[in-house]
Amino acid sequence: MYRTYRTTKDTIMGAETENTDISLKLITDLDEKEYVMVKRQKEVAIYSLLLVGNVTEIVHGVSFKEYRDITYARLDKELLEQGIKPKKRL
After folding, report:
1. What is the pTM of this model?
2. Which residues touch 25 (CB under 8 Å, ≥6 apart)?
């Protein structure tokens, strides 16, 4: 089931998944930076953890309007980064 996760900095839409073939371990280095070690069948990788924002709300489900607005905002940002002015939408 897809959910909307609202944080202090961003809105994330996605599904939580559980998988017995994957294990996660939190690693904290000497400078107190946090990483996650992800072990899959034959692959082991470490990812740095960057704070996206503190969760302010979890909505069970995704509204089409909010999904569309967020998707267009991301596309518009990519276009602006390429020097292209996005079209106005109704």
Report:
1. 0.57
2. 36, 37, 39
